[in-house]
């Protein structure tokens, strides 16, 4: 019988073990930090795509959604570009996140329904102050996923993601935005921030959402 072909992410851990490790971490602590998690070929195609993207495709990041959108550069000053999946790189990214979504739904019964994500560029000096990605009661963004596309990132470059375990946690857990690292966390539970980057810093931030559509409100917004 032919051996089952294993999808691998860095020719070490099979994709299923990566997804299972994430699921376990979410159950045990609500967040997961995984280095070298994105398959190398996928990181490379995303990185290549990003390197060839014109700066005009990025726009100032705003805070909040839809009608409450506001620009507040004292909170964040990165620029973003939404990923729609109409480039081969975007399509491969969304297919990988879809696989993760299906796995976590089967394993954790989260009922994740859709995924939205954007590239983010933090130029030198840029940051994103401590915040939550979702607010209790507006249960739409359930799980946040951040991944990094910075080859050879050094700790002296700053730009760490800091995850705070509770509102009173002032120290947090620091994550370097290294190529292939991903961080997954419950959007309503974990405040986090991006420390000032001292070099160009690229990430993809994404959110798995539940469906909150009703007869007079389509979700996600078109
Ligand atoms: C965000 C965010 C973290 C990062 O976009 O909401 O928290 O490390 N990004 O880029
Ligand atoms: Mn965030």
Characterise this structure.
This protein has 222 residues and is of the alpha+beta class. The protein has a single domain, classed as Jelly Rolls (Sandwich). It contains three helices and eleven strands; from the N terminus they run H-E-H-E-E-H-E-E-E-E-E-E-E-E. The protein has helices at 15-29, 40-51, 88-108; strands spanning 31-34, 59-60, 79-82, 114-122, 128-131, 141-148, 161-163, 173-175, 182-186, 192-194, 201-209. The protein has a seven-stranded antiparallel β-sheet with strand order 1-9-6-11-4-3-2, covered by helices on one side. Strands 5-10-7-8 form a four-stranded antiparallel β-sheet, with no helix packed on it. N-oxalylglycine is lined by residues 120, 128, 133, 146, 161, 192, 194, 203, 205.
């Amino acid at each position: 019988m032919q051996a089952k072909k294993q999808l691998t992410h860095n020719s070490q851990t099979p994709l299923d073990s990566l997804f299972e490790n994430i699921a376990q971490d979410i159950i045990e602590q609500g967040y997961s930090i995984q280095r070298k998690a994105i398959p190398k070929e996928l990181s490379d195609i995303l990185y290549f795509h990003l390197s060839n993207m014109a700066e005009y495709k990025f726009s100032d990041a705003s805070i909040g959604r839809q009608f409450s959108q506001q620009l507040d550069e004292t909170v964040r000053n990165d620029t973003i570009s939404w990923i729609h999946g109409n480039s081969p790189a975007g399509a491969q990214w969304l297919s990988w996140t879809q696989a993760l979504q299906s796995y976590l739904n089967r394993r954790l019964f989260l009922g994740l329904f859709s995924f939205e994500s954007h590239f983010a560029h933090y130029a030198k000096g840029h940051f994103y102050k401590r915040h939550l990605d979702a607010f209790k009661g507006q249960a739409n963004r359930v799980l946040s996923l951040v991944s990094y596309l910075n080859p050879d990132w050094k700790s002296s470059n700053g730009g760490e993601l800091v995850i705070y375990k509770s509102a009173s946690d002032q120290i947090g857990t620091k994550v370097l935005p290294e190529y292939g690292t991903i961080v997954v966390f419950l959007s309503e539970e974990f405040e986090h921030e991006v420390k000032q980057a001292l070099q160009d810093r690229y990430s993809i931030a994404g959110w798995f959402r539940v469906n909150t559509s009703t007869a007079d409100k389509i979700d996600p917004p078109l």
